[in-house]
Amino acid sequence: MNGSKMLKSRTYLLTGLALAAALTLSACTNGTAPNASSGSSSVPSASAAFAPADVTFAQMMIPHHEQAVEMSDSIVAKDGIDKRILDLATQIKAAQQPEITQLKAWLRDWGTDEASTQGMDGMSGMGDGSDGMMSDGDMTALTDATGADAGKLYLKQMIVHHEGAVRMAQLELDEGQNVDAKAMASNIVKSQTDEIGVMKDILATL
Fold it and tell me: Angle at which helices 179-205 and 52-76 pack, to 10 degrees?
């Protein structure tokens, strides 16, 4: 009687061990090791990954956008400006101000700052005047201009400014890694290329 009970106990034990082994094997064949974490915090998500080019893009685009906002503020404060130009300037400011906020947030997330924003030579092809930034003299000329002349000058300057931004954004698309930064760069290329076309059309009628 006792021997029979012992035999049954051994049978149950062996069956349990076989089941456990089968479960372990199943886990391994599904690519999940026992006790492995399903989401390791040591592996960054795609949107969190970034390269030096992404940092430089943000550092360069912040002052670039800030100057566009300053130029737009200057033109909308003047009298005698064509309504189409006023509408465009308002549109540019509305688009670029939130992007400035986002760019600054990315730099904080990436553990860096805006210290390099005055150096426009961080990306290949930049630092040679191709960024489209206005000089102090250019900004003074826009500030001093009035009426129709101010409107024309704003358009001419902003076309150059936008062309520089498009080049910077294209470099980010070519060299960057961060998914969100590249998405912004793609939007800049499209929206500012469209605005360049609008500005040229307006200039042709003035």
Answer: 30
Asked whether the beta carbons of 182 and 172 are under 8 A apart, the reply is yes
Q: How far is CA 138 from the centre of its chain?
A: 28
Instruction: Let me know if residue 90 belongs to a domain.
Output: yes
Specify the long-range contacts of residues 111-115, CB closer than 8 Å, at least 24 apart. Answer: 112/55, 112/59, 114/59, 114/62, 115/59
The DSSP-derived string for 74-136 is: HHHTSSS--HHHHHHHHHHHHHHHHHHHHHHHHHHHTT--STTTT-TTSSTT-SSSTT-PPPH
Q: Are 174 and 56 in contact (CB under 8 A)?
A: no
Report the number of distinct structural domains present in the chain.
2
Distance of CA 178 to the CA centre of its chain: 7
- My answer on whether 64 and 25 are in the same domain is no
> What's the first-to-final CA gap in the chain, in angstroms?
111
For 34-68, write each residue's pLDDT tens digit: 333 333 334 444 457 999 999 999 999 999 999 99
Q: What are the residue ranges in the chain where pLDDT is below 50? A: 2-46, 117-128
Torsion of CA 159, 53, 173, 60, to 10 degrees: -20
> Residue 120 has which token pair?
């426009």
| Beta carbons within 10 angstroms of residue 160's beta carbon | 16
Together in a domain, 13 and 58: no
